[in-house]
Prior knowledge:
Bound molecules: pyroglutamic acid
Number of strands: 11
Structural class: alpha/beta
CATH class of the largest domain: Alpha Beta
CATH superfamily of the largest domain: Bacterial extracellular solute-binding protein, family 7
Shape: globular
Low-confidence stretches: 10-18
Strand order of the largest sheet: 8-5-9-11
Number of helices: 11
Strand content: 15-25%
Mean pLDDT: 95
Order of helices and strands: HEHEHEHHEEEHEHEHEEHHEH
Radius of gyration: 22 Å
Distance between the termini: 75 Å
Largest sheet: 4 strands, mixed
Amino acid sequence: MKHSTLMAAIIGLSLSSPTFADKWDMPTPYGDANHPTQVARLFAEEVSANAGDALSIKVHSGGSLIKHPEIHRAVKSRQVQIGEVFIGRLGNDNPIFKLDNIPFLATDFDAAMKLYKASKPEIEKQLEEDGLKLLYTVPWPAQDLYSNKPVNSLADIKGLKMRAYSPTTSRLADLMGTTPVNVPFSDVAQAFTTSVIDAMVTSPSTGVNNQSWDYISHFTTVSAWIPKNMVFVNKKIFDKLDADTQNIVMAAAANAEKAGWELGRKNGVEHTNVLRDKGMTVSAPSDTLQSELRAIGKTMVKEWLDESGETGTAIIANFNQ
Ligand code: PCA
């Protein structure tokens, strides 16, 4: 092919095929069976459908592109444009991220939304300091207790190895008289079957997605807190989009947040029923256990207020209004 013909062919090709001005890679920590990743896919589809040639987003689920502990840094450093993390994991970066895992503060969805609204400006501020912009959050169902024996009081789990997934849950395990062991979601089943852990506090969804009935017998609905995942974008990258595309991203984020909060609520009920149907012993906490756990919650709120100072005091006052 003559040089001029080749050039014409290349130019023709580039004119006829859609050219995306921007392609974003979006790593998510949890796999496709988890509702936060399902919401991420809806979000990406909505943006890609509405932004035409201006922007498309590709979701990489389950840590397939970037592992969970690296996602925050990867978006900060613009290795990827956008990403999702479990908020509580960042607890050591700033106390505002610890608040997301404090037990017995906001234990139902209405209270969790109130706490989210009270804490959102500070979450946004901390993300902004890292050059990030918050797009949306997705809550998990309330966190319940998985164990291999009935737990009527903390004495029943004293000395057990308890899964932790954030600095705050490590502290909780300490205060419960158990030993915290860090285990990522993807290793939960193996950690139980190899006795690396004996108990965990997480949502019924996570039990369902790990088929917990194969290796755990008891599920106590302590409803301790409602943690969230958050999705953020690198701010410089977002700012480079034209105004219309920015609006499309923000509208899709608002829809994702709405869908995510609805799913968290719905899955809490449905997945508890699945655990029961699969043969796990599902029970409400005894009065003793409840009051022991509530006392730990009080201690942890106090510790958090000491750590977070005036900012934290203002958030809790706003939440209690
Ligand atoms: N599941 C995730 C986070 C909170 C939840 O319910 C997990 O256990 O890793």
